[in-house]
Design brief:
The protein has 413 residues and is α/β, with parallel strands linked by helices. The chain folds into two domains: 136 residues, Alpha-Beta Complex (Aspartate Aminotransferase, domain 1), CATH 3.90.1150.10; 260 residues, Type I PLP-dependent aspartate aminotransferase-like (Major domain) (Aspartate Aminotransferase, domain 2), CATH 3.40.640.10. The chain is built from 13 helices and twelve strands. α2 runs parallel beside α9. It is globular, with a radius of gyration of 22 Å. Bound molecules: pyridoxal-5'-phosphate.
């Protein structure tokens, strides 16, 4: 096989040709500044409004609740810091609550802003997942305190593909706020729950970067207050994303300037990026159910064949757990090859024409084992041997067959 086989969609998905077509007019000189009054600007504004309406429709939000950003990392940072700071400045830290809950296996785009809050004096509790990669509602509920102002749990884990019970966790967070706030005579929703330190509203954020376009996702049905998205994980352009911020959720913008995006994210909007994001999301949504079934079948075939290929191969998450779309992303498989460093295998596979990754892209090249794999309780040696294969719209059975044959050659030579 001479063509490259790309099996790292969770790192970034190839730009879809239809997306490039939709973006082309806005890359070739037509794009005015959407904040100007003349024709070029008005056209750009209209394209931006249409893109926003599409994203809002696909996630079950209203367009005024959607803010375009430069990607998942910016969305996570803006929301976590923006919500925590807004609550503090509105009420003073004591009255607004001082405690943040998240999990040990979040992406660094969540963990780092949470750590930054800790350095500012907020208290932080990080919930641990089970060995099979889930945040249990009981463990989450136990971490909530009367002064918890924000909880953030990712919807789909980027290294192992487990899907968290977000609706249940959001409900617990809100019930926590309601229970505390009721005692102090305030409601649970919106910014106005003027409770004392015992009894603040607990807002709930989810990093849905890996879930968007792959799982059914309605922010209203999930009941979240805020969510982060990125275009390049679903065949859109890199460097574009969005966040959802439920109406009346307290938010202090961190990116300040000309007041674009309704003062929530200053900076001239990326029209081509927003148009491309909307197109990629529309395509992904139209194909979602069919693709989920197709990629689940390919992934399960890959898992079974890998286990038969070599006794040194085990799955990071046991296969019997990996079947339901409610619990695992369709096209992601994490496995380990005992006795092999993942870097060695990645480079050998690369030379043979295959792109796969180890832990997360950010952890690749680092000697530290991934924080996600160690959080699952994997020994360091095992964590160093993990490969992640993630499939997407261009992946075929022939790619999987070729990958298996190449891996067999590498392991048995
Ligand atoms: N959150 C998760 C779960 C991710 O997988 C990623 C990307 O790997 C990000 C956030 C960061 O998104 P972006 O690359 O758009 O900044």
């Amino acid at each position: 096989m001479t063509a490259r086989v790309y099996l790292d969609y969770a790192a970034t998905a190839p730009l879809r040709p239809e997306v490039l077509e939709a973006m082309r007019p806005w890359l070739s000189g037509l794009a005015g500044n959407a904040n100007t009054l003349y024709q070029e600007g008005k056209r750009a504004r209209q394209a931006l409004d249409e893109a926003r309406a599409t994203v809002a429709r696909c996630i079950g939000a209203s367009p005024t609740e959607v803010v375009f950003t430069s990607g998942g990392t910016e969305s996570d940072n803006a929301l976590i810091i923006g919500i925590a700071h807004a609550i503090r400045t509105q009420k003073g830290r004591e009255r607004g609550g001082n405690h943040v809950v998240s999990t040990v296996f979040e992406h660094h785009a969540v963990l780092e802003p949470v750590q930054a809050l800790k350095r500012e004096g907020y208290e932080v509790t990080l919930v641990k997942p089970t060995r099979t990669g889930f945040i249990e509602p009981d463990a989450f509920a136990a971490a909530l305190r009367p002064d918890t102002l924000l909880a953030s749990v990712m919807m789909a884990q980027n290294e192992i593909g487990t899907v968290q019970p977000i609706a249940e966790l959001a409900r617990l967070a809100h019930a926590n706020g309601a229970a505390g706030a009721a005692g102090a005579g305030a409601g649970a929703s919106g910014a106005g729950a003027g409770a004392g330190a015992a009894g603040v509203s607990t807002f709930f954020h989810t990093d849905a970067v890996q879930a968007l376009g792959k799982l059914p996702l309605s922010v209203r049905e999930l009941g979240v207050d805020a969510a982060s998205f990125s275009a390049h994980k679903l065949g859109g352009p890199q460097g574009v994303g969005a966040f959802y911020l439920k109406r009346q959720t307290p938010f202090a913008a961190t990116q300040l300037g000309g007041g674009q995006e309704n003062k929530r994210r200053s900076g001239t909007q990326n029209i081509a990026g927003a148009v491309g994001f909307a197109k990629a999301l529309e395509l992904a949504e139209a194909e979602r159910e069919h693709e989920a079934a197709r990629l689940t079948a390919l992934r399960d075939h890959l898992a079974t064949a890998l286990l038969a290929l070599d006794a040194r191969i085990t799955l990071t998450i046991a296969q019997s757990d990996a079947h339901s779309l409610n619990t695992h992303l369709p096209g992601l498989l994490s496995f380990l090859v005992a006795g092999y460093e993942s870097e060695t295998l990645i480079l050998k596979l690369d030379s043979a024409g295959f792109a796969v990754s180890g832990g997360s892209a950010c952890s690749t090249g680092s000697l530290e084992p991934s924080h996600v794999l160690t959080a699952l309780g994997l020994p360091r040696d095992s964590a160093h041997s993990v490969l992640r294969v993630s499939l997407g719209h261009e992946t075929t059975q022939a790619h999987i067959t070729a990958f298996l044959a190449t891996l067999a050659t590498i392991l048995h030579s």
